[in-house]
């Protein structure tokens, strides 16, 4: 029996000014009814392009399939098929769920209207019947209070709820194949676990085939039967998940499997003096209402947080988006207004003026999440790193400063000869190294690391974690490491603090907390992060 | 780090000693790719530079006079008629046939290409003014017997200079005001915005009419008033860019480094705002020139007798029987404004990040 979807020798070439880029080079795979195939690879490996070619959704004629490329779905050749035939298949027999739930729903229509659209289109349903079917679908994907949500607009839903709506939309016509392109990357870990569970349940119920695109090996292990490892447009390894993970044959697969952050933080001295401490730290944003714009309530982004961080130690701050982690980091560095005591090296920071604070900024640095937005695009790397040196009058002249910059670049593993280049010429991992060099060149004692690895590919993440550990060991730095990724936190932190809605839920030494989480929220977070499991009845958001 | 990530050493790109970022280079290439805009820029620059030397092209004084073995430069200095053997100790009138004859008897005269200043009245007209184009007055004369081509060259110069000065000054004020509002936000922003709302409601034309009843508006008066009322054009644009950019991570990072606010504004945020500003500038220049022209046309502009395109158009309107007046004014204005619009389009292309050649 031939399989449901059969891709043979798929090539995709994009025309670019002055040439062509081959994004996919000869990919072949089969997908059977009820099976789950995972396409794994880092960004730019061609996995999304492969998925989009199945639905023929690439920007033709800029994109081209070379002769010999074939995609056969249920006996029909899709490459070069007429538009009418493709429309019949898209959203009807093959449906797709995209990565970013924030932008894949139309903000101007209610969710009922958006789900019903595909029912009108493919099933020619009457409005009344469509409404009943939409309600049924929303209940199926587990959207709470489905009746009330029918008239909701996308902005009234959370990220997880939107992804459920997207899945409901994809399921509307009971497709034979569901393509999920990084369906959980933009979501928090607990919600990720919920969505994955939902996909699995639905698949079992309808016998759909699932084509899953992801860079997260944990998801592959959990969900897929067969895995295809892609790099630079080529499949380097394919086979049953268990075999590939247990006995990876290709060097790249081994590299990918080895890239999961592991190891432990360098040992810290428990008798070291406390470097940074906060007590009852609050960041409240006022909500004004009424004619007189009086303050009626506050959004409590950070609400009474206290901790003490020793020299050479790392404090991991863990929590879902909106829990106030980043706000806490910014408040500690006095980058936003806050209330409550902040102590650095025994001195109070919270009552210093901007001018008195300036000399201390040398010792307190920050590295941001997104290395694409944290480097000024118009300054060369040397200028970016030099800025702090100039502010704090380090180095007597340009040559001396240049020597310091070169040294900082070498320390983060970059070539000093690249200092004259601009940020856009670097990869994500290299940019994050530049951002780290900008902080470390001042020889700080405390660095706030605000999700420094979450915008990076898995193998690059591991390298950056290693670099951070190395810098800590060498200079005795203290880190406040903010992350939603518990695996990275486990590899770096001595102390961990779990935050929810601006408050500390649980805090303690990392090892103890990871082994014996006490609070149910912490437990749910860990089950979701390490085992991708949903803990029933846990106090998690939807 | 993998081999693929190894960085190749490279020298910074320099043009005339200035560092050029790859971005600038790409923009310049985009600008050049718009052939029409690129050539418009060259034509406009050529016309502008030529008009800057208007005194050497259209003047009623010779460039060089050789008289009795000495060289004189009337274009730079005043010489009494007696220098050339005349009778009066007053300034020599080189167009006077008597003076001309005396000089040519003992030497020679080099005239500019057009032997008329903008206010020179040609008394030797064969037909009553306004006279049609002939071999002496190439574009004819206006209703006071003054050479149209000479007035045109001076008028072009004054229009362009006025437009440029107004554009540059109002951009500087507008960018500064927008930057401060957008960067600091809050109360500063709020009060500035209300002030601008009030201020922008002042009607320019009535203000000028009232003003012209008690002072004689000259170039600088007009510039001052127009500046006071036109600096708001860029404020909203720059303010919006600053509101957006002040929350960028690299601005936060600079604050975390301890960089002072004015430095952050100039070094990190302003370059972002400059893209939309520069794109707008040719059009502001266009607007400034048009405003001056229309004020001159209405008679509330530059003092009477000044060469100006608006005044030429007014004469064209008053002398329908002399079509060379109106046509000349129309074609020159149309040419100038079209060139500037084409340049503006090319600048817009150059800064368009989505532009794929």
Task: Note down, in words, how this protein is organized.
Helix content of chain A is 35%, strand content 26%. Chain A is of the alpha/beta class and 542 residues long. In chain A, helix 6 (159-171) runs parallel beside helix 7 (189-206) and helix 13 packs parallel to helix 15 (428-440). Chain B has 357 residues and is mainly alpha-helical. Chain B has helices spanning 22-33, 35-52, 54-57, 97-106, 148-184, 186-199, 204-214, 219-230, 235-245, 249-257, 261-298, 309-318, 323-351; strands at 14-15, 18-19, 64-67, 70-72, 107-110. A 3-stranded antiparallel beta sheet of chain B has the order 4-3-5. A two-stranded antiparallel ribbon of chain B has the order 1-2. The model of chain B is unreliable at 1-10 (pLDDT under 50). The interface between A and B is large, with 45 and 29 residues.
Q: What overall geometry of chain A do the principal axes of the alpha carbons give?
A: globular
Number of helices of chain B: 13
**What's the main sheet of chain B like?**
3 strands, antiparallel
Distance between the termini of chain A: 41 Å
Q: Count the strands of chain A?
A: 21
**Content of β-strand of chain B:** under 5%
Largest interface: A-B, 45 and 29 residues
The topology string of helices and strands of chain B comes to EEHHHEEHEHHHHHHHHH
- On the 0 to 100 scale, the average pLDDT of chain B is 84
Residues in helix, % of chain A: 25-40%
- For the report, how would you describe the main beta sheet of chain A? 6 strands, mixed
β-sheet strand percentage of chain A:
25-35%
- The strand line-up of the biggest sheet of chain B is 4-3-5
